[in-house]
Design goal:
heterotrimer, A mainly alpha (about 325), B mainly alpha (about 290), C alpha/beta (about 280), A: about 325 residues, mainly alpha, MetI-like fold, two-stranded antiparallel ribbon, 14 helices, flat, disordered N terminus, disordered C terminus, B: about 290 residues, about 70% helix, globular
Amino acid sequence: MNVVTRPSIPGETEQPSLATQMSRPSRFGDRAFEWLTLAMALAVIALVFLVGWQLARGSQLAIAKFGFHFLTTSTWDPVAEQYGALPFIYGTIVSSLIALIIAVPLSIATAVYLTELAPLWVRQPLVSLIEMLAAIPSVILGLWGIFVMIPWLKAHPFPLLKTLFGWTPFFEGPIYGISMLAGGIIIAIMILPIITSVSREILRSVPNLQREAAYALGATRWEVTRIAVLSYAKKGLAGAVILGLGRALGETMAVTMVIGNTPQIKASLFAPGYTLASVIANEFTEATTDLYLQALFEVGLVLFGITILANLIAQVLIKTMAGATTTRAVQ
Amino acid sequence: MQSTPGNNRRWRTIKSAIVSALSFIAAILVVAPLGFVFFHLVRSGAGAVNLSFFTQLPKPVGEAGGGMVNAIVGTAELLGIAALIGVPVGVLGGVYLAEYGSARSNRMLRFIADVLNGVPSIIWGVVVYGLVVLRFKSFSAYAGGLSLGLIMIPLIMRTTEEVLLLVPNGYREAALALGISRWKTIVHIVMKTASKGIVTGILLALARVAGETAPLLFTAFGNRFWNHSLREPIAALPLQIFTYAISPYEDWHRQAWAGALVLIVGIFFINIVVRLLTRNPAFRVL
Amino acid sequence: MIETAVQSPNSMSQQVTDQGTHLPTVAPTEVPAFKVQNLSIWYGQKQAINDVTIDIPSKTITAIIGPSGCGKSTFLRCLNRMHELMPHTRVEGKVLFQGEDLYGAGVDPAAVRRRVGMVFQKSNPFPTMSIAENVTVGLKLNGLRKRSLLDERLEKSLRMAALWDEVKDDLKKPGMSLSGGQQQRLCIARAIAVEPEVVLMDEPASALDPIATMKIEELIGVLKSNYTIVIVTHNMQQASRVSDKTAFFYVGKLIEFNDTKTLFSQPKEKKTEDYITGRFG
C-alpha cells in the first residue's frame, strides 16, 4: 500500500493529508510482539526442562554411587554416607493414600451436592468457603495440626481406633500423636478443595440433556446423579482424584510438621513416618557433605518425576472429559 | 424393579433423600476445617497481635514480646521480586495463548502450564538453590523471590489467557478495522478491556505464593534481623511461623499463632476483595 | 495460518498500470474504487465466495443484498481483509483497490484497513474509553499525537456522524453510556475519524429501532459525498432507500449487479426477481 497516495478529496482543505501525519504501519512491531509473547509462553516448556536438568545435575554423584538401589534400600544414614530413599517413597505413598481415602468420598460427595442437590442460594457461598480453605497456607495448617489436631487425635479418635482395630498391624503400637495417620489426615484437608472444585467443574460440564433424559424415565434425584451424571463423568472424576494425588505427593510443610520425620517403614499408621518432600524440607540446609546434598537432590528428582507423572495423567483425563472448552479468539 | 411400583418408588425416594443428606454432611465436613483453623487462629493469635508485633524485631528466646516487622517487610519484598519475574512472563505468555498460536500448539502449551502448576513448591526451592544459592554462595532475597516468581508464571499465564478470551471479538475487529496494528490492538484495546481481570489474576497468584514456605526454606532462608541487601538472607512471615511453630518455646508458639493470623487475614483479604471486584468465572477454578 | 493464493488473470496487469497512471487526473467517480476479479474465498473446505467479478464505483453507495449465508458479509470483509481474522481462509482472484492489489505480496492488512474502514452489525464502542477517546483512538494508536489536530478530528467526525450536538457536552462520558443508535453513530464517527476512503458497513442498522435506523440511513446518504460506501443489508427496503447500486448475491455467487432502481424494478435474473418479490430468503 505504499505506492499510491490517496487523491485529495474536494472540500477537505487540510494542509498535509492526515495519512502523512500518522506513523507508517510497520510489521516490525507486530513481529516483535508476537515473538516476545511466544518466548514467554515457551517459558513453561523451558521451566519443565530446567527443573529436570537442575535436579538431575544436582544428583549426578548420588545416582552414580547408588544407582537403582537408591530407590530400593531403606538405610538413610548421613554419618555412614548411606542413602536409600525407600522409607520416604513409602511414607509419601502411604500418607497420600490415606489422604485420598479420606478426601475422595468427601470431595466428590460435596461436588455432587454443589452441582446437583444444593439449593441455588447455598451454592455460591459454599464454593467461596471451599476456595478460602484452599487459600490457607500449608504452614498455617501445620501449625494448627501440631497444636490442635494432634492433641485431639491423640485423646479421642486414635485410642478408639486402637480399641477397635488394634488387633490389625495397622493400628498397633504406642500412640504418639505425630504419625503417618496424622500426616495423611492433614494432607486430606489440603487436597479437599482441589478435588472438590475440579470435580465440580467436571460435573457441571455434563450436558443437561443427560439429566433430563434420566428424569424423563422417572428416576429419582440420586438415580439421575448416579446413572446420568456420575457414570458420564467417570473419567473426569478420576482425573480430579489423580490431580489431588499429585498435590498430596508434593505437600510439604503441613506434613513435615505432623508426620514425625522418622525414616522407617512400619505397618502401623500410628508410627511416625517421613515423606520425600519433608526430608528435603528438614535436611536440605543441614546437608554438610556433597553426597548428602546430592542424595537430597535425587529425592527431589524422584518427587518431581512422580508428581509430573500424576499431573500428566490427571490433565489428560480432565481435558478429554472437558473437551474443547475454550474456543479460539482471533487467529 | 417393576413388581411393586408403589413400594419400590417410595424406597427409591427414601434412598435419594438419604444420599442427599449424606452429601450435605460431606459438604459440611469439607468446610469444617476452615472454621476450626480460623477459630483457633483468632483464639490463640489475636492476643499477641498488637502494635509491637508490627513494629519490633523478634526478641531472643526468653524475652517476652517482640514482633515480626522484619518478616512482614521481607514477605512484601519477596512478593515484589516475585512479581517482577512472574507478571511479565505470565501475562505475555497468556497473551500468546489467547491471541496468537495455532489451536494445537496452544493446547500443548496450556497442558504443560497446567502440569507445571502441579509441581510441588518445594521443588522450586531445590531448583533455585542449585541455580542461584550455590552459584552465588549465599541465601538471598533474590533467590527467594525467584522461586516464588517461577511458581506464579503458570498461574498468571492461565488466568490472563482466560480473561483475554472473554473479551468479545467485536472489539478486536473494530480496532483492526481502524488500521491499528495487531499488537497495538492487543495491548491498547484487548488487554485494556481485560485489565481488571488480568490484575485480579496477578493478585490471586500473589496471595497464593504469599503463604508459600517450602520454596523459601533454602532460598530466602530467613533472618532474625533486618535485611540490608537483597543479596542477603531475608525473613518471611511463613518462614518465621514455621520456625516458631516447631520450636519448644511457649512465647514463640504464641508469636507463631499471631503471625499466622496476620498472614491469613492478609491472604483472605486479597481473595475476598478480588472476588468481590470481579465476579468472573475465570477465577472459579483453583 | 492464512494461505493467500492469488491467481493473476491474464490480461489484468496491463489494466492495472493503466489505471495507476490515470489515477490523479480522472475524476474519482469514474474510477471504480474496487475492481474485484474472479474472487473466490474458502473457509477451510467450505467455499463462501465463488468466482465473483464486480466493479464497485467510487463515491457512491453500493448495497449488497441476498439471503443469509449467501456470502455477502464475507465478500464485504474481503474488501479490507477482515475475513483473514477467521482461521484457515484462502483467497483466489484479485481485489484491486485504486488499482492496487490488496492481496499483493508485502501489502500490510493494517495499511489496507486504514484506507478501507468498517462499521459492524453490533455497535462496539470500546468499553474502557470515553466518547472522545473512542473517536480519536484510531488516530492516536496510528501515531498521531498533535492535540489540536485530534480535537479538530474529534469534532469533525462527530459532526459528520450527526452525533456532535447530542454528545458535545458529554465527551468524557463512557462510550457505552450512549443509546444503541448513538453507539452505532459513534462507531461510524470512529471509523471516519482516521479518514478512510471507503467505509464498509455490515448490516449497520439491523440491531436498531426504526427511528435510530432512519438516522443511520440519513447519515449514510450524507457520507456519500466524501466516501465510497459499501453496505451489506438483509433489508431490501433499506437497500432501495439508501443505495445507488445494488448487488444481489446468492450462494456465494454474484447473480446481478445494477443501478438500484433498475435492479428492483426490472431485475434481469429470475433468482433476483424471486428474491426481491419475497419468494425465498
